[in-house]
Amino acid sequence: MSNNTTSETKSSNNNTASVTKSYPMNGGDGTYSYMKNSSFQREASIIAKGMIEEVIAKKLDIEKITSASNTFRIADLGCSVGPNTFISMQCVIEAVEQKYIFKGLKSQLPEFQVFFNDIGTNDFNTLFTSLPARRNYFANGVPGSFHGRLFPDSSLHIVHASFALHWLSKVPEEVLDKDSPAWNKGRIYYASASDEVANAYASQFAKDMDNFLNVRAKEIVIGGMMVLVMTATPDGVHRSKTGGGILYDTLGSSLMDMAKVGLVNEAQVDSFNLPVYAASPKEMTELVEKNGNFSIERMQPTDPLLRIDDAIDMQMCTMHIRAAVEEIIRKHFGSEIIDELFDRFYQKAAVYSQMDSSYKKKNLLFLALKRK
Amino acid sequence: MSNNTTSETKSSNNNTASVTKSYPMNGGDGTYSYMKNSSFQREASIIAKGMIEEVIAKKLDIEKITSASNTFRIADLGCSVGPNTFISMQCVIEAVEQKYIFKGLKSQLPEFQVFFNDIGTNDFNTLFTSLPARRNYFANGVPGSFHGRLFPDSSLHIVHASFALHWLSKVPEEVLDKDSPAWNKGRIYYASASDEVANAYASQFAKDMDNFLNVRAKEIVIGGMMVLVMTATPDGVHRSKTGGGILYDTLGSSLMDMAKVGLVNEAQVDSFNLPVYAASPKEMTELVEKNGNFSIERMQPTDPLLRIDDAIDMQMCTMHIRAAVEEIIRKHFGSEIIDELFDRFYQKAAVYSQMDSSYKKKNLLFLALKRK
Predict the structure, then answer these.
(1) Quick one: which of A151, A263, A317, B237 is 20 to 30 A from B291 by CA?
(2) What is the mean pLDDT of residues B143-157?
(3) CB-CB contact of A159 with A75 (8 Å)
(4) Does the structure show a pLDDT above 60 at A7?
């Protein structure tokens, strides 16, 4: 291995530390599984479908990127267990095939190799046993954090990541430090916290995104594309007025309510923070431009992320939040508080959802980047 | 997708049928897990290590196979859950690195990408969470039967398979047919059965091996190599006198003993056959030569496969057999017979192992092939 490669691989291995701090979506196919509780994300995938088709049709230069090989490699980062990832990958493949056909290159259609990536503790067993029986691609699972290197140099043509990049590599250190002005006492998220806390989160996200763009720049061929679907804070909207902000704040205040009646320890709440950040389109533009490896081909705020129109939807929403964050909460607080916590969360969130619905707008950002 | 590719991918998908008939090694890391009960296979990996190093040093033409890319791709077929597969992959990588260094190409050392393959119901979760933290390769899991296509055209440089190719794609149909002279009544294996039964097994193996060599020939670059470690029947030794033959026959007669006292149904035993075959070096030579896609670079019968020197080793041997075939037996006979069956197997096998040890010789075949 060249020195360069060795240090990269090392850096990938050093990321093991953050991988072990990462938590998978709920595995299996049970009541609280991500598989059964990811219809919001699926809805977003369907919204994204049209945009994916369009950017591939208009922006992808297939002659440029596939000259060296007849294999077209696509990765889905933070894929969880399906079925959404299968829908997204099929969508990408069909859009690429259409492009070949449109260009009169039907006879040169490539073979597709799809890399399903998530952290090593993700339930890959469920992913693999639920792969579509009829598929026109070679399937691979890739364990590891997308904050580190996952693939060889210049080996990918399209990278897709949906509802993944809001996961930080770690909780910003300052928010756990009692002596810092950014100490996040009594909260588990930055949305309704002080600007110091929010800045600590933003700064961690900026570091993570810069690193993410650097490692992907190595892995993606020149002209290759990234299609990102992200939870976002709309430009001009305060962080506490977004869907994610309200929901995670409500989860935090449910924990604090439990602390007040002695069901959890308040110090435990103080020392727990969700490593999640929802950037704004403006922030993402600045970060991508500052990084310099990718051009922005499309940046499209969209909605709805969550259709919280009535109490029934809030029940579904509770199940979704639970599928996503149960594991990280369980590791910090223990299993015994989970049911009580999400009962309380549901009660509080259902009341709120009757009062205001402005927070539902433009919580989703569709972003298409091209490797320069 | 070109017609050619589509039909290949289809054929890969059609193999889903045989995949669903395949059974994984015992997963997890419990008492009866493959992870804890694969030291025989590990011992064989250690024996194979020297031979792998030698064939890579002497036979692999690295300039020829890696000109188009700086990624060196290695697959381990039928990898199970580790740790043996990690040892084998490290061995292959080190041998390739040594070759580069020896050739004065240290500055051109490639990045390594390793593909861990096994059927989709294999415990990939355990495999992924036990990956070596310090590794100098990008790790991938590939779910699917090695009897079908798994990788894009010309995408692999070295394929390794240890204790995998003895698994047939299916039980030969004739041995389940009451009207056939090859009906295997009262047995679960061909070793001590009639020649008709043995021929049916041999014929299925020949078909599977020809297909295996054809699909791998598509996936491996010209000049790329396959390193196979197989359970084998030594040339000139009757099939009933090999380690595997004796052990599986003993398992079958343990089942028949249970049938006699009503613990299982005799018809159930008649309808169960292990889809496993141990070819001889002579057979393998003929099959590879007839197929024509690969040259034989080395064919080395070796031993010991099983070091069954005393009762303690037979206990270990029982655990090993159990880790390998428990799942397929469970699916046919149900969970409740498992403990009793392996208790009986252990008693019978322990007595036999005191009587004779000639069957321990040359039960292992090391084979290195090069893609023409």
Answers:
(1) B237
(2) 95
(3) yes
(4) no
